[in-house]
Design a protein that fits this description.
By secondary structure, the chain is of the alpha+beta class. It has helices at residues 6-24, 33-44, 50-61, 92-105, 111-129, 159-171, 242-250, 270-275; strands at residues 31-32, 66-68, 75-78, 173-180, 186-199, 202-209, 216-219, 223-233, 263-266, 284-286, 291-294. α4 (92-105) packs across α5 (111-129). The chain starts with 5 loop residues before the first helix and ends with a strand. The model has no long low-confidence stretch (mean pLDDT 81).
Length: 295
């Protein structure tokens, strides 16, 4: 293999640095050149002057939709609506995955993360549109998830409340909460957040209040305002896990214990019980009354 010349090596490092810098530019917020310089050194062992970084970004902005905040400390961001920079080009399975994530899991992700992924969602749509003959491009139109439970209209949760909830969980901080209780009265609590649980159309915050250790459930749509307490980190009660709390039956039926049960069903219902078992070792027997005994 031929040795690379100094100029070629220098050019490759220059291109690598530009690609790394482009990957650091956020959406809907700005990153300062000083932060870019710090991350280049800490994460990639690249030491470079602020003036060089600024010059490179100015040059890149002539090709890509980069904007500045017109501040003396100079912050950089992608222009709103910009597609993601795909290197290499997003292939169809990845594009389909982004489409399905957006359509079915958007409510599980913080808005800030969705904003970061917005360019990828747009690129995924564009990629699938450019492949009209691909079977994958129409896959999202052929798959649906339907619930057989009653369809209630979800209560409105203000976006700022959801953003604050995600932020408190991410930063693991306590917060002051103005909350409307079931009676309609408003109360203020100091909340120690433990996790979010989505139950059908409702969003529950699992938390403790003040210095107490008993776990409570607070509905997101009853929250009026949230004030972070940056000097009060959240703590987890000894032995607590969110899955363990759910399995204990706090949001439905308790899991873990065995209950001896015998039930009579109309015979017409038996096929459903054969096809979708309640437990692996269930037994179904018929009697003369055109009924089935389940146990």
């Amino acid at each position: 293999m031929a040795k690379k010349g100094k100029d070629q090596d220098k050019n490759e490092k220059y291109v690598d640095r530009l690609l790394i810098m482009l990957g650091m530019i956020p959406r809907r917020e700005f990153i300062k050149t000083t932060e870019i310089a710090g991350r280049l050194k800490a994460e990639h062992n690249i030491e470079i002057s602020l003036r060089t970084i600024q010059r490179d970004l100015v040059n890149l902005s002539r090709k890509y939709t980069l904007i500045t905040d017109d501040n003396k400390s100079v912050g950089w961001s992608w222009m709103e609506g910009t597609r993601s920079l795909d290197i290499p080009v997003m292939d169809p399975p990845v594009a389909l995955t982004f489409r399905l994530v957006r359509d079915s899991m958007a409510h599980l992700l913080p808005r800030a993360i969705l904003a970061t992924l917005d360019g990828y969602f747009r690129s995924a749509d564009d990629r699938l549109k450019k492949l009209p003959n691909s079977k994958l491009s129409h896959w999202a139109d052929k798959v649906r998830v339907v619930s057989r439970s009653l369809s209630f209209t979800p209560p409105r949760v203000h976006e700022s409340i959801l953003d604050s909830l995600y932020k408190t969980l991410q930063l693991e901080l306590c917060f002051e909460l103005d909350y409307r209780v079931r009676s309609g009265k408003e109360k203020t609590y100091v909340v120690n957040p433990l996790g979010l649980v989505f139950v059908d159309n409702l969003i529950y915050l699992v938390a403790t209040l003040y210095d107490y250790t008993d776990v409570k459930q607070l509905l997101a749509h009853r929250m009026k305002s949230i004030r972070l307490l940056p000097d009060q980190p959240a703590t987890t009660p000894a032995g607590f896990t969110l899955q363990g709390y759910i399995d204990s039956g706090e949001f439905g039926y308790p899991l873990g214990g065995k209950i001896p049960l015998k039930v009579l069903f109309e015979k017409d219902s038996a096929p459903y019980l054969y096809e979708t078992k309640l437990v692996p070792n269930q037994k179904l027997t018929s009697n003369r009354m055109e009924r089935c005994c389940w146990r």
